[in-house]
Design a protein that fits this description.
The structure is a homodimer.
Chain A: E1 2-6, E2 10-16, E3 25-27, E4 30-36, H1 38-48, E5 53-60, H2 61-74, E6 77-83, E7 88-94, E8 99-103, H3 111-127, E9 132-136, H4 147-157, E10 161-165, H5 168-176, E11 181-182, H6 186-191, H7 196-201, E12 206-210, E13 216-220, E14 223-228, H8 239-253, H9 257-273, H10 282-288, E15 293-296
Parallel strand pairs in A: 1-5, 1-9, 2-7, 5-6, 9-10, 10-11, 11-12
Antiparallel strand pairs in A: 2-4, 7-8, 12-13, 13-14, 14-15
Chain lengths: 297, 297
């Protein structure tokens, strides 16, 4: 079983617009709503590929209800801890050739709510038979910056593997928890002033760096590789989440590192081809897999 | 009793932002939500001035629940007809010197829901002792374009006065119902290819044209006037709704046309001074009233 943790889940709203006139009134053509947040994208990809997955985290308010209903409709198992605040929305203004994102800050989480989540998470770890936990995305206000370190420590106690995909302070603190894999992109690693080598020294057993079109660079206990998918063009949002999903599959099934990286590069390229984050076409994934170039460093 | 009708009520969301980077990810600083739609702005102003007012119309979904809760918190009486669709949201991107508005299209209203509203409205007219009905704003998809004509005809049967504030086809059809007052602005009148004179010929007993800084121009059964408030600067959104609120007060209390126009010009200038649409400071209104210049045409 794979558990994805989404502490700052979002209701992703997309406004399809012909053009955006600044300082004026704009009519929105089509409105599309869906459950968002990086951990939920990972859960969607895993569910599409038939992997057993449970989504947990924090949800509150009317946006939270919509997220919960959307996930229920997909058939993904959910174990969210309710909070009093309103889960955040993101609004994407999708013009023909340009998308502008607006991210709300997220609800304030009280200390009591955070401790309830920790208790719920501990119960879930022991009752669900979790093999892999995926920690993804930002933390809402009120959740301690070392949240991912705390959760990773809890996982180590039950022998559950951990993949960390975070940014800024939550990434820096999370590394100290010694996750099995950390998956930053180039900008995220730069923001915490680390390299793949120093990120390993900071605590991660393996580092998988996603570098956009240039593919992956991985430093692992079994060796170092780059993995490059064929050039694809499309929507890069969610490509990192698809890579995390592939790494979670690899941990769950005990794949070798070369296999994990081949699947990771192919699945994230398939995500670029898909219209929205969290979606992949399994046929595209299968077709891309033999085209990934793997090179030892 | 004044009844305001808001068929396309909205949840108005304001995002306070330092700047908007197009094609990029933007962090929203502060999120403010409130019940919106022109009819609700009119109801808020009337409630602030202590006038008896009931708000009716159509509300649905989670946005509709938030609108209902916000109105309940203000103490305004509500008699909304529930619909299955989701009431629209509007998003205002408020930068320092520029505000960009995004308007969702509104829910689809079924024929059954529309007929339920007509029945509810008929009951409200006879049971509430309504003296004045205010018909404001756009129609959601599915509501017939001649909705305001139908509602005006129902009001005539019970001897209730009607003020119409609409745009496009709903305005054109509404005039044929012979409302007591129609209140277009310059752009709205131009869009239906009418002048104040031809708008009267099309059915309105009186036409009050709002012309921004230039004040009001009114053609009425008792004469024609312009009314000019002192120059004020601020947020013009909601100034037209405040004017409608003043005209409703005038009808309710049987004020002369010169008094209605003096109050209308002062109240809409006070609305410009207020931070948000639907708000007025009664002290500013009282201070502006003697400064309005009224001139017969």
């Amino acid at each position: 079983m794979i558990i994805t943790v989404t502490l700052n889940a979002a209701l992703d709203i997309t406004y399809a617009m012909t053009s955006l006139d600044l300082g004026d009134t704009n009519r929105v053509g089509r409105v599309h709503e869906r459950a968002g947040g990086k951990g939920l994208n990972v859960a969607r990809v895993l569910h599409t590929l038939g992997e057993p997955v449970l989504a947990c985290g924090l949800l509150g308010g009317r946006a939270g209800e919509t997220v919960r209903a959307d996930l229920a409709a997909t058939g993904i198992g959910v174990r969210f801890t309710p909070i009093g605040g309103e889960s955040r929305r993101t609004v994407a203004l999708a013009e023909q050739d340009r998308t502008t994102l607006l991210n709300e800050p997220g609800p304030h989480v009280t200390p009591d709510e955070w401790h309830t989540f920790l208790a719920d998470f501990g119960t879930l770890l022991t009752t669900s038979g979790a093999d892999v936990v995926v920690l993804s995305g930002s933390l809402p206000p009120g959740v301690p910056a070392d949240a991912y370190r705390t959760l990773t420590t809890a996982c180590r106690r039950t022998g559950t593997s951990v993949i960390l995909d975070a940014d800024g302070e939550p990434l820096r603190h999370g590394l100290a928890g010694q996750p099995d894999i950390v998956k930053p992109n180039t900008a995220e690693l730069a923001r915490v002033a680390l390299t793949p080598e120093t990120a390993r020294r900071a605590g991660a057993a393996a580092v998988v760096l996603s570098r956009g079109h240039e593919g992956l660079l991985a430093l692992t206990p079994d060796g170092a590789w780059t993995a490059t998918p064929p050039a694809v063009s499309g929507n890069p949002t969610g490509a990192g989440d698809a890579l995390v999903a592939a790494l979670a599959r690899g941990l769950l099934h005990g794949w070798s590192w070369p296999d994990r990286l081949r699947h990771g590069a192919a699945l994230s390229a398939a995500a670029v081809l898909a219209e929205v984050a969290g979606a992949v076409d399994p046929a595209a994934y299968r077709a891309l897999l033999p085209q990934v170039r793997l090179q030892p460093l």
